[in-house]
């Protein structure tokens, strides 16, 4: 019997490619840039499975143009780049890579919170530019982290991992808002208080966004929400860029209506709105939440496990739409 045909649409670790190639007829896109939509459609012809990352969009139109496709395995926990209902309607299985990146992404979230509160990027830029003249009492004085209120919008796995860092590492008061409330024992373990979104915005000293992106969360933090925040507060986004109205954020940062922001994700990434680059009170990182080698290897391995299991009669470990 001929081997099943799959497309590996982004660069992947050698071990993963070897595992997939041992079982499938693999078409491998090893370029640095993602395939364009047209290239993706062309290379998916006759393929039953595809390994993607967050940079490939799987739309209803693409699915209709690629009727052989049965499994979409994304090497990401987020799947807002995939039209999941369209996949389900066509009997296409979608899988993602949850859990293996939770702690690493929470680490980055906390690092960004610290860097933002303590003005680390601003300090480094100043030092490199020769602007460090002497020590003075209010030089680069930032915001306190320990003992303050950590607000978490979206209390899934990564939100809870952030709460543990805040509570047990920094003695912070944990407040959160989520579509559904956590069980009482989990709230107790995390010392987490459930608040309405409005109260969370008002009370947080540091607000971290960890909710999934969807039409419902598009610009969930914009002008009206920023207006509720404390002028001393920081906003951290490690979820998806589209959750924040970046123009409203830039205006709030410029007018000092909030103190600072740390962004790892952007609405038009990898393009970043020029206004964000001009503001001193913002720390910017290029979507590196899960970017450690062990975690990326684990994500790639899990994406391969999903593809292998789903196409060879097994049970995919982390399906999205079953
Ligand atoms: C994820 O896993 O969703 C990360 O944001 C990388 O895309």
Stretches where pLDDT is under 50 for at least 5 consecutive residues are none
> How does the major sheet shape up?
7 strands, parallel
User: Which class do the helix and strand fractions yield?
Assistant: alpha/beta
Report the C-alpha radius of gyration, rounded. 21 Å
Care to count the β-strands? 12
H/E element order: EHEHEHEHEHHEHEHEHEHEHEHEH
Number of contiguous helices? 13
Hetero groups in this structure are: (2R)-2,3-dihydroxypropanoic acid
Helix content: 25-40%
| Integer average pLDDT | 98
Spatial order of strands in the largest sheet: 8-7-6-9-10-11-12
What general form does the structure show?
globular
Strand content: 5-15%
The tally of domains stands at: 2
Span between N and C termini?
A: 28 Å
The CATH first-level class of the largest domain comes to Alpha Beta
CATH fold title of the largest domain: Rossmann fold
Question: Secondary-structure blueprint of this entry?
Answer:
Blueprint: E1 5-8, H1 14-23, E2 25-28, H2 37-43, E3 49-52, H3 60-65, E4 71-74, H4 84-89, E5 93-95, H5 102-117, H6 120-128, E6 149-153, H7 157-170, E7 173-177, H8 184-190, E8 192-194, H9 197-203, E9 206-209, H10 223-228, E10 234-237, H11 246-254, E11 260-263, H12 274-278, E12 282-284, H13 293-311
Parallel strand pairs: 1-2, 1-3, 3-4, 4-5, 6-7, 6-9, 7-8, 9-10, 10-11, 11-12
Helix pairs in contact: 1-13, 5-7
Bound molecules: (2R)-2,3-dihydroxypropanoic acid (DGY).
EC number: 1.1.1.-
Domain D-isomer specific 2-hydroxyacid dehydrogenase catalytic: 6-321
Keywords: Oxidoreductase
């Amino acid at each position: 019997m001929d081997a099943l045909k799959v497309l590996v649409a982004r660069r992947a670790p050698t071990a993963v490619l070897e595992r997939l190639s041992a079982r499938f007829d693999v078409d491998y896109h090893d370029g640095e840039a993602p395939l364009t939509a047209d290239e993706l459609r062309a290379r998916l012809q006759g393929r039953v499975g595809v390994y993607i990352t967050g940079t490939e969009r799987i739309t209803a139109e693409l699915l209709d143009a690629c009727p052989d496709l049965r499994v979409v395995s994304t090497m990401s926990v987020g799947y807002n780049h995939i039209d999941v209902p369209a996949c389900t309607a066509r009997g296409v299985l979608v899988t993602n890579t949850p859990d293996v990146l939770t702690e690493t992404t929470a680490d980055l979230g906390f690092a960004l919170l610290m860097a933002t509160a303590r003005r680390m990027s601003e300090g480094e830029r100043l030092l490199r530019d020769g602007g460090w003249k002497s020590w003075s009492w209010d030089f680069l004085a930032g915001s306190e982290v320990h003992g303050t209120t950590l607000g978490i919008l979206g209390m899934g796995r990564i939100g809870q991992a952030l709460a543990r860092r805040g509570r047990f590492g920094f003695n912070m008061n944990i407040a959160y808002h989520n579509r559904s409330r956590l069980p009482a024992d989990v709230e107790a373990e995390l010392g987490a208080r459930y608040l309405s979104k409005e109260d969370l915005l008002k009370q947080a000293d540091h607000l971290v966004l960890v909710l999934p992106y969807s039409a419902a969360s598009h610009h969930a933090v914009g002008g009206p929400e920023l207006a509720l925040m404390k002028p001393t507060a920081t906003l951290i986004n490690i979820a998806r860029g589209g959750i924040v109205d970046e123009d409203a954020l830039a205006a709030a940062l410029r007018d000092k209506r909030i103190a600072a922001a740390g962004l790892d994700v952007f609405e038009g990434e990898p393009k970043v709105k020029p206004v964000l680059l001009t503001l001193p009170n913002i720390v910017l990182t290029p979507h590196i939440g899960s970017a450690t080698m062990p975690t990326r290897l684990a994500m790639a391995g899990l994406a391969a496990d999903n593809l292998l299991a789903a196409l060879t009669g097994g049970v995919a470990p982390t399906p999205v739409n079953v």
